[in-house]
Specification:
The complex is a heterodimer of chains A (about 110) and B (about 120). With about 110 residues, chain A is mainly β. Chain A has no helices and eleven strands. Chain B is mainly β. Classes of the chains: A mainly beta (about 110), B mainly beta (about 120). Chains A and B meet through strand 4, strand 5, strand 9 and strand 10 of A and strand 5, strand 6, strand 10, strand 12 and strand 13 of B.
Chain lengths: ~110, ~120
């Protein structure tokens, strides 16, 4: 049973560029959440998708957008990258009807130069 | 707003001994969930244990147990018989439970984490 997968593993971009991160949830899970984790900090909630709609959003600007596909996989898009966007981006999957235990992927480490 | 506080930036423990990692939380919601995650240097967040706010008994999962004191709003993680592989960052997190149309949503709010080092 494959867990949560994310691609790419690492990414280097320059300021002003755009980036797309991808996530495939654990088999059977229907909800995907994205978190940003700066170095030495706890993860911060970006948004959550269920039934292809954004259901909750954290305190992140509109430069951060996402999408969920019919197969439950998801993308995180960040436009006009800033140096402060450098972080580990974690995708988590869960069952909407469950306790909300989230299984996380290995993350994508984004570096903005 | 929900808040999680982990007051121990770093903890040290001898192999085979028990260790307690502290977590306090603040919420006005009557219904919530508390989680502990382990994050090794590889970066992946590994789920350890879950406690629901209405659960009567403390959660246990193998060598992990959660000391849940609702009145004090604390949810400390106890790791028994520490192993070298337990060395990692540990995060306490809380999930607000908002129901809409029969489906539960809920972002996780994380604490700052505690780095645990297990000495041989």
């Amino acid at each position: 049973d494959a867990g949560v997968t994310q691609s790419p593993t690492h990414l280097i971009k320059t300021r002003g560029q755009q980036v797309t991160l991808r996530c495939s949830p654990k088999s059977g899970h229907d909800t995907v959440s994205w978190y940003q984790q700066a170095l030495g900090q706890g993860p911060q909630f970006i948004f959550q998708y269920y039934e292809e709609e954004e259901r909750q959003r954290g305190n992140f600007p509109d430069r951060f957008s996402g999408h969920q596909f019919p197969n439950y996989s998801s993308e995180l898009n960040v436009n006009a990258l800033l140096l402060g966007d450098s972080a580990l981006y974690l995708c988590a999957s869960s069952l909407a009807a469950g306790h909300g235990v989230k299984f996380f992927g290995p993350g994508t480490r984004l570096t903005v130069l | 707003a929900q808040k999680i506080t982990q007051t121990q930036p770093g903890m040290f423990v001898q192999e085979k001994e028990a260790v307690t990692l502290d977590c306090t939380y603040d919420t006005s919601d009557p219904s919530y969930g508390l989680f502990w995650y382990k994050q090794p240097s590889s970066g992946e967040m590994i789920f350890l244990i879950y406690q629901g706010s209405y659960d009567q008994q403390n959660a246990t999962e193998g060598r992990y147990s959660l000391n849940f004191q609702k009145a004090r709003k604390s949810a400390n993680l106890v790791i028994s018989a520490s192993q070298l592989g337990d060395s990692a960052m540990y995060f306490c997190a809380m999930r607000e439970i908002s129901n809409a149309g029969g489906t539960s949503y809920g972002k996780l709010t994380f604490g700052q984490g505690t780095i645990l080092t297990v000495h041989p």
